Amino acid sequence: MKRINQLFFLLYFLSILGCQSNETASEPPEEMDTYYQEPHRPQFHFSPDSMWMNDPNGMVFYDGEYHLHYQFYPDSTVWGPMHWGHAVSKDMVHWEHLPISLYPDPLGYIFSGSAVVDWNNTSGLGENEEPPLIAIFTHHDTTGLRQGRVDYQSQSIAYSNDKGRTWTKYEGNPVVPNPGSRDFRDPKVIWDDDSDQWVMVFAEGDHVKFYGSPDMINWTFLSDFGEEWGSHGGVWECPDLFPMQVQGSDEKKWVLLLSINPGGPNGGSATQYFVGDFDGKTFTLDPDFAADLTNEPTDTVENAIWLDYGRDNYAGVTWSDIPEEDGRRLFLGWMSNWNYANRVPTHPYWRSAMTVPRTLELHTTSQGYRLMTQPVAELKQLRAASHPITARPVTEDVNLSEQLGVEGSLLEVELELSVANSGTTVFGIQMANDKGEHYTIFYNSETREFYSDRTEAGKKDFSDIFAEQPHVAPRASEAENIKLHLFFDVASAELFADDGATVMTEIFFPTEDFTKLSLIVEEGAVDIKSGTVYELKGIW
Ligand code: FRU
Questions:
Q1: Is the overall model pTM greater than 0.85, yes or no?
Q2: CB-ligand 1 contact for 495 (6 Å cutoff)
Q3: Which of 185, 206, 240, 338 to mutate to test the pocket of ligand 1 (most atoms within 8 A of CB)?
Q4: Domains of the chain by start residue, with CATH
Q5: In the chain, how many H helices and how many E strands?
Q6: Predicted confidence (pLDDT) per residue in 427-475, tens digit
Q7: What are the tens digits of pLDDT across the range 99-112?
Q8: Among residues 391, 361, 378, 355, which one has the least CA distance to residue 487?
Q9: Helix or strand or coil: residue 18?
Q10: Which residues are known catalytic residues?
């Protein structure tokens, strides 16, 4: 009996020990506490867990997963030999990091490109009755470049038969060799039902090229577009071509997104777009859209229609293979600018984040065909608390954080207001900290312009041109009520004004997080019609 008791105690003691050690084990390891907690680390935007990132690449939806690849240099926080980093998400909001998909090889670095589902296995690269995923990217041959050659960029493909977990480069690469031309890159591929072929668009210097293929292996030149259209303040990069149904009609138009660096409306990198028709061979501008642009090549910015007037939305493209029953055109951009991307003060941890995912819609407006950009509805799941703003006229600054009891620096603001009856009105939405640093989005009713002002928003010495003046966007809408929809993360602001008619994306680096949200009335009066401030949750 005594021995049984002893055994019982021994077992009991061991079980306590076991419990204790289990408890210790279930506590987050030390590094988890600091994961994604470095200064300036975005909390609900995608950023790589470490090192350098630029353009989004290989964005494809397959089997319930949104794939996001990205230009990645795993050995440094500055740009270098490019790989394709990889992450997947079920909702475009929460991301799981996966191993690198594509490494540099003897043909070169892996530059930007796209990915599609080859539903009918036209490439013959599929296995086991499953459609392969095909990645189409640029090989950038630095050896050739160093030797003074001009044909150092060409288009290649890789395929995956395990839902994007591993990728094999096609042995016959490149599939579009370089004919002797510098700046020959960034292929985006789409299946065009009407012409029954794969269509590839990529940038060549100051224009884009279209190629067609039955199988993504054999490509034929179709046409060029753009030499005499749009902004030419810099090199053309990262095009995207897709059909869109014009909202509220059965009409189909084709949209061509085109990134340009430098030459953006506020300096450096930015994205313009064109609306027209594509007949399986040629992209033709819509006559009214063409009338909005002059056909004189010039390096001014007036003859371009911009997707986003902020400085920090570049190289954005849309997801391939979004199911028809969803029907959205889903976009994501790189939230930085080549003017300073390599120097932003997030060293030594990581550099750059993506914008929030967005929907693009084509509308007929008083100005003609225009894209409207909105944050995706999936972001609503981040709302942790909501604070309604009382409708009322306001003539002085309002500390919204204090008045509404708003906490934190991750905020979403929706506000509808009118400035119609108050003469010239200048108002703004501001985020500030106790150190006197602040970031403000202003609107001036006289100039009818929005201003993004990061001139006093914290660190700016890393670049002479990061914060030298506020950045400007003309208000596109003519509606009397102004609608503002804003997202503030730790180091960024995204403005979707008037249901996405005017968009601005900007980054900043306060030395202490911004936690004070205010409505600033500099001149005149603002009549608040309705509004809500949401505190948001992080995703990491
Ligand atoms: C755009 C870009 C692309 C190129 C990639 C290289 O930001 O310059 O044209 O493929 O970045 O990283």
A1: yes
A2: no
A3: 185
A4: 2-44+52-338+349-374 (2.115.10.20), 384-536 (2.60.120.560)
A5: 5, 34
A6: 999 999 999 999 999 999 999 999 999 999 999 999 999 999 999 999 9
A7: 999 999 999 999 99
A8: 355
A9: helix
A10: 55
